[in-house]
Structures are given as structure tokens and as C-alpha cells.
Amino acid sequence: MDLHRVVVSWQGPQVQGAAVNVLHFDATEQPVPPVAAIRAAYASLAAALPTNVNIQVPGSGETINDATGELVGVWATTAPAVVSGTGGTIAPAGVGMCVTWLTGGIVNGRRLRGRTFIVPIPGPAFDADGTIGSGALGALSSFATQMQAAGGLGVWHRPTTTGGTDGTSSSVLGFRLRDKVAYLSSRRD
């Protein structure tokens, strides 16, 4: 199966490094991914994002084969407007929220799942005990519901070896949110 890859970029003074969310959409369902619906989902997060953080859903991208990960085409459409955060200027570095995407796929005896990190989030999005506030969790739930309703959202599992053909993908059937801070790290930390 072929997948449209949508690389959503994050920019702003509170964003650390080259921050992106990589999403995959079933290319057999539509000639281009639903960029307007993706943008609307991110717009529902505006109050849960720091002021001056901008999110750009692209107007073009790649189409890949899910078994090999090889490029099989490109897609292009009109890029939607930038989404700007409105939640405040103070944001803890590297922490925020996370959506876990649930699928019916099984890979190597385990359920195939994906994650989308929403990092950073502003100080007012946290409760006094350091967990995520109900307003921010509500916005995250709206985001996840809209992303799933956009149609064709999937999770891709890359091939396990270089040049391999054992990659796969599965449609998102639901999502899970946790009232727990998610943080970004790297293997170099």
C-alpha cells in the first residue's frame, strides 16, 4: 500500500531544534492528504500552544510504499495557513502532551501503535500538580478526534532491515491520551 507522508513543521522561540510531526495517510483513499482537515485539527490546539509557536501543514510531500519505505511519488496542493499558538509566552522546554494512535495491526507479536507529540505547551496548560490541565487535555482530545475523522490516518512501521520489504501500515482505529507530561529526549541525552 502507498502512504502520503505529511511533515508538519513547528517554529518559534520556544521550539527546540528542527521540530516536526510526521503523519501518514492512505494514498489509495485520496490523491492528496486532507491538509485542510489536518490544519483544522492543529488549529483546535491553538490555546494549548505557546504564543509565537507556529505550525505549518505543508502543501506538498512524498508518497511512499509501506513495505519498503521507498519513494513512489509526490503530492501537491495549496498549503493551508499557519496555525499560531495563543496560550502564553512561558513554556517549559521539551515537555508537553502526547497522543497514542491505536491500530488493529500486529507486528512481531505486538500491536502497532504510533505517537504524535505536542511539545511545547505553555505554563497555563499544566495543573498545579504538574499534570496536564483539563483545558489542554480537552484540546488534545479535539485534535485527535479531528485527525482521525480526516480520513485515512495510519501508522507506518518501517522495514526492519536496510532494503527490506517487511514494512507495513495500519489504519488508526482510536487513540489514547494520558494526563501525564510527555517529554522529548534523544539518544544523545
Descriptive overview:
With 189 residues, this protein is mainly β. It has one domain (2-183). Helices cover 13% and strands 39% of the residues. The chain is built from two helices and eleven strands, in the order E-E-H-E-E-E-E-E-E-H-E-E-E. The chain has helices at 35-43, 134-149; strands spanning 2-11, 19-26, 54-56, 60-65, 71-76, 83-84, 95-107, 110-118, 153-157, 168-177, 182-183. Strands 1, 2, 3, 4, 5, 6, 7, 8, 9, 10 and 11 form an eleven-stranded antiparallel sheet that branches. Helix 1 packs antiparallel against helix 2. The chain is globular, with a radius of gyration of 17 Å. It starts with a strand and ends in a 6-residue tail after the last strand.
Question: Which SSEs are present, and which pair or pack?
Answer:
Blueprint: E1 2-11, E2 19-26, H1 35-43, E3 54-56, E4 60-65, E5 71-76, E6 83-84, E7 95-107, E8 110-118, H2 134-149, E9 153-157, E10 168-177, E11 182-183
Antiparallel strand pairs: 1-2, 1-3, 1-4, 2-9, 3-6, 4-5, 7-8, 7-10, 7-11, 9-10
- The geometry reads as globular
Number of helical regions: 2
Total tally of structural domains: 1
Q: What portion of residues is helical?
A: 10-25%
Percent range for β-strand residues = 35-45%
| Unreliable residue stretches | none
Sheet of most strands:
11 strands, antiparallel
**Overall average residue pLDDT:** 94
Rg, rounded, reads 17 Å
Please provide the ordered H/E string of secondary-structure elements. EEHEEEEEEHEEE
Question: Can you count the beta strands?
Answer: 11
- First-residue to last-residue Cα separation: 36 Å
Structural class: mainly beta
